[in-house]
Write a structure and sequence with these properties.
With about 130 residues, the chain is of the alpha+beta class. The protein has helices at about 1-20, 30; strands at about 40-45, 50-60, 65-70, 80-85, 90-95, 100-105, 110, 125-130. Strands 2-1-4-7 form a four-stranded antiparallel sheet, with no helix packed on it. The longest helix is centred in the first third of the chain and has 21 residues, at about 1-20.
Length: about 130
């Protein structure tokens, strides 16, 4: 019995040692749960999986207003998007002034990797609308 316990303990120590040597990858935002974006807000992140800098975090209010994504910190750097509005859509545009190729995301939807839709690092402006 003592040998079995000792072997189990030794195997556990070996497993811990291997994990420490290899290093455990940090959990992404999606693995940790829903991304951090308040209800009725539109949020956009620099990196996929809702990681990196959150360059956009605005209240979801329908209007004809074109929102420019900051030219230095965020412009052409958006890789993940969460439309946490209950009823509104958000349309990203490839150019300033809400011009260029559009990409629309419905209400209460999220995309962890815009590359899957051919729009990674493309957004320069956006509108929130019905």
């Amino acid at each position: 019995m003592r040998k079995g316990i000792a072997r189990g303990f030794a195997a556990g120590l070996v497993g811990i040692g291997i994990s420490a040597l290899l290093g455990a990858a940090p959990a992404s935002a999606t693995e940790r749960g829903e991304p951090n974006c308040g209800l009725d807000r539109i949020c956009m992140w620099e990196d996929t999986e809702f990681d990196g800098t959150r360059y956009v975090d605005v209240a979801a209010a329908a209007s004809d207003t074109c929102h420019e994504i900051d030219w230095w910190n965020g412009d052409n750097e958006i890789s993940a998007l969460y439309n946490h509005s209950r009823t509104l859509k958000v349309t990203l545009y490839a150019n300033d002034g809400c011009t260029g190729a559009p990409f629309t995301l419905n209400a209460d939807s999220l995309i962890s990797n815009l590359n899957n839709f051919g729009f990674d690092n493309e957004a320069e402006s956006f509108k929130i609308h019905n």
